[in-house]
Amino acid sequence: MEMPMLHEKAYAEQLEQENFQFENAPDFFQEKAPLVLPLSKYGKHVLYWILEYDPILDSCNMNMDDWGQIAADIHKHYQYFDGFVILHGTDTMAYTASALSFMFEHLGKPVILTGSQVPIYEMRNDGRDNLLGALLIAGHFVIPEVTLYFNNKLYRGNRVTKVANQSFQAFDSPNLPPLVSMEVEIHVGDILTGWPNVEWDAVFRCNTMEKFRVQTDMNPNIGLLRLFPGMSLQTVEHFLSPPMDGVVLQTYGTGNAPDSRHDLLNAFKEASDRGILIVNCTQCPKGGVDCYYATGKVLLDAGVIPGADMTVEAALAKLSYVLAKKDVTLKDRRELLSENLRGELTMVGLGQESISLSNNRFLRHLARVLQLGSAEEMHAVRDALFPALMCAAAKNGDNSTLQVLIQQGGNVDSKDYDGRTPLHIACSQGHANTVEYLLKNGASVYLRDAAGHTCLRDAIKFRNLSVIKLLVQTGANLSNHITPIRIGIELCSAAAHNDIDGLRAWILAGADPNQPDYSSRTALHVAVAEGHVEAVKYLMDHGAIPTLQDPHGTTAVIEARIRDHMELIPLLGTEAFCAEPAPAKEQPPESPGKRRFSLAGKFFGKKNTGSGD
Hints:
Distance between the termini: 23 Å
CATH topology of the largest domain: Rossmann fold
Number of helices: 23
CATH class of the largest domain: Alpha Beta
Largest sheet: 7 strands, mixed
GO molecular function: asparaginase activity
Radius of gyration: 28 Å
CATH superfamily of the largest domain: L-asparaginase, N-terminal domain
Shape: elongated
Pfam families: Ank_2 (PF12796), Asparaginase (PF00710), Asparaginase_C (PF17763)
Strand content: 5-15%
Protein name: asparaginase
Active site: 90
EC number: 3.5.1.1
């Protein structure tokens, strides 16, 4: 069955004729032709590959090992793709979304779960729209969260719960509005590109400078205990007995339990004293837990941890994740459960001053001048002005202004007219302190400007070595936005000009010093040919191999002899001096059509979109 909205055959055939290759990817993806979405209104073809599990699992049979397999596979392929879509049955999709949100630490790329209520092969179904929407979002927007896309809405993954089994509106996020709404326009709040309304500051950012990693271990010794009137003490005591390590306790209203049932409260207190972690979640689908009432405070006194407005799915996943952490004290585990780790709960009562647009004197004055009369108009002005102001502050290394703008709702990844973010500009200017500040406030190292350049490419261009170190530390890499041949060309160019800082910048960013250019010559070949002693020394000190041959069988030593640069031969090592050149290998002609795609949203298939189980 052909579905042109999910695969544009003509463009795919054009790629095949041009010998398109996904050069940096593992062999599995190089051997498979990509599927291609039609050209979007934003001028992008989204290319995606499918990895299908065998056997395909019914979502009702999902367990923690399956979550670990999904997490490990995404971690394995993380550097090669811009985003991931997971096809999943609907029955346990909310559980998987919550679990993955915790297992993925320092996530910087979109991971979207989706599925369908009606199988995709039936004439009337929701699978096509759900899959298409998820692919479009993953391929166009860097929303660094585990999310769930269903019925034209993108939700935070650990905020959703399944609410209907006979409706296309199968999921809801009771305590957090959708991050993205797919209507006539895609609403994600970037007024410069015509996508209005929804605030980017709703997106949860990890605010660290650590690389992406996964925790695949989860503790299965957890359970869900729902209070009901007349519950027996024996039931509770049996439920809290070993090997139970953690419990989500579903209580009445705002987190209340009967304060007249001293036997139950004592059982909870004894279990908590034994080290069992008990998290209090309300039975109400909307709202959260507080301890204002006496019936709620008694649970807090018994050692039960308030779960705020977490869903049951999120609370169970968080318990399992925290309990599986190694070398963590009981006190630390309790604190982790109370913290907002992945946007799974709403923090209240912190005593912090509320900041809004109405508190900003500059915008208030501007509103009077422009005669703005609504909050929507104020937001529109903010979205129009803040990107320019933030980029100007980044250019000047003005962290104080950036802090004010971010506190006033500015998007740390906002783009100027050329698609450059504040991080792009700070990296170009070499403001390491500003780069560090932006990274710690959630700036993405994966965004590209209108020319397709990342902030790492800008830092390399301007030889800002301290900035490159910060970006690489945060997870930036060269693998999915520049071809190996281009890296080889840049290395050879730097070697030809004895540009040590250029060589240092590329190698510090992760470039292979032995990467050949289009003529299969390495930077060491070029440095020797030009007689640049400093470049030869630097390359040899950083892993250059002097015995590599170009298409004519010429090594760096032979190059030195041909060019009469005999003083360079000792620098190349005795191995190179003694090595006999092997016969030159016949090189296949370079394909003129080889190129990289500009932007891709790829996905892993966990389950064919099915009937919701």
